[in-house]
Amino acid sequence: MQELFIDWDLPRVTCVEVSRSGEDVMGVQVHEFVAPDDLWDLRRSRELGEWLARELSLKQVSVSHWTVILPRDRVMMRRLELPGVPEAEIPIVVPFQMATQLGTAPEMIVVDYLPNHPGIVMAASLPSDVLGQIRAVATLCSATIDRILVSSCLVSAAKPDFIKKAVVIWADQHRIESVWNDGYGISAASCRRRNSQADLAVGELAGEVRRLLMNVDTSGDEVPVFVWGQAATLVSELAQKLDTPVSAIDSELVSTKAFKGKVDAGLMESQPAIGKLALLGLKGIPADKEQVDFLSPRKSAAKKDRRMLYGIIGGVAAVLVIGVGTWIWNSKLAELDDEISTLQTQITDGNSFIKARDSIGIAAGKIDKHVSQQVELSNHFSELLTTLPGTRQLFLTSYSIIPLTGEYRARVVASGVAKRRIDVELFFEQLNQKGLRVKPSPIDEETKKDRDYPVEFKLELDIPSRRAVAASPKKETPRPSQTTAVDPATPPRS
Length: 494
Known about the structure:
The protein is an alpha+beta fold. It has 3 domains: 1-158 and 262-302, Nucleotidyltransferase, domain 5, CATH 3.30.420; 159-248, Nucleotidyltransferase, domain 5 (2-Layer Sandwich), CATH 3.30.420; 372-464, General secretion pathway protein M, EpsM (Gyrase A, domain 2), CATH 3.30.1360.100. The protein has 11 helices and 18 strands. Helix 1 crosses helix 3 and helix 5 (202-213) crosses helix 6. The longest helix is centred in the C-terminal third of the chain and has 82 residues, at 306-387.
């Protein structure tokens, strides 16, 4: 398992890569990067994230879980007195009190706090846009932020447990941080070194301790001073300068305090100042109550509100009443739906019967019309036979009727023979006079099929649709088929 601790001290971004096996630290690597000046702007978070992602990639660092450590001077810390405020309401009151002291709106800052003496807290705030910048950079580096801590809390965590009141000083080449810890809470201060390239001087440490002690109540007691980081090299000089006991924090003592598992004290001792600070930030050590975490600020515990319970009970009762009423209503609606369905079925059956009756009537009408047309056609045929001049002059050898539509009802197509051409022409003229339309057809006078009837002719006449013909007398008249030749009488042979 790997964790990345990032000291967010722009333009410097120092990454401490910690490799662990369970709770045991197996190795530590420190990488320091300096961001270009034009990327500090909060409006350029994207460019800053892309830059850091490239730098981590070059160092082959691909840790997805980050713990961000903010230097003391990057946050605002205030000692707030809250007399008479119930403990459960402190998480609600502190952000508003802090916003009032800083002269800003509560939504513009993120606030967390550490308990101090009864009725007193040490509050810390971070601008919301800085938190947004850190989150944006982590997203661009494909990482998840677990915590955002304050370095002063980690410095304070190095204080030996058997000492109640003490000053703890931590320093590296860029800054000095000092913390007063009286067993109830902390007060913290820090300063930037004027020349980060020069060796750490004892006067810098002594001045920072004096400045811190001027703002705390020591009750006249002698206050021991514990130093670590680069300050651990100036223990004797600082003791002479302050005229007070000064001790270097034992790396072995810190290692057993900082880890649940096993860690080599030599590994702790070999780390640079920022590496030692990061190792005290491992999850769970120190306890959450000793840390400020801007990613998960303290919140008030939810009070038990029995109004919700009563509301739920009332709601359940209302639902039951509405449910029973709805069931009864739906049952009645279901009965009505069944009746409506039955009536609709009956209506459908009735409509089907009416449509079927209409269809039968239409079919019957068509049949009657067809029969009447057949009767009329037979009457026309009978009329045609009576018009024939007699078999001594001409007779028909074939006869067929073709049904038509529109202006003409049917077409008669026949063929016959005659003794003389004049007989055929007279026959055609008589048909025209009766209102039948005779189409001109060739008359062949030179046929030699029958020497008694040498003239052959074809007859095509159309029967108009609106022409009425009287019914023929009731006597049996032979009805020829449409494909059989008609021979009304056998012509006499001489």
